[in-house]
Specification:
The chain is mainly alpha-helical. 62% of the residues lie in helices and 8% in strands. It has three helices and two strands; from the N terminus they run E-E-H-H-H. A two-stranded antiparallel ribbon has the order 1-2.
């Protein structure tokens, strides 16, 4: 689903950024352009980003424990 219409950023783009190591909203904004136009997407993007970061941490713990 599109999260940022202005820049064409999807929820999958946000998840991919978290999986690739983005840990801050500023990093997410830098690599996607998200939130740099009208800013209406920022709250929803942050929620998706926080969830994706948590899932990425959990996955890294699973792989490091194996």
């Amino acid at each position: 689903m599109y999260v940022c219409i202005c820049k064409g950023v999807t929820d999958r783009d946000i998840v991919a950024a978290a999986e690739q190591g983005a840990t801050r909203m500023s990093q997410l904004k830098e690599c996607t352009g998200l939130g740099s136009q009208c800013g209406k997407c920022a709250r929803d993007a942050k929620a998706i980003f926080n969830e994706a970061k948590q899932q990425a941490r959990e996955m890294s713990h699973l792989f490091s424990a194996a």
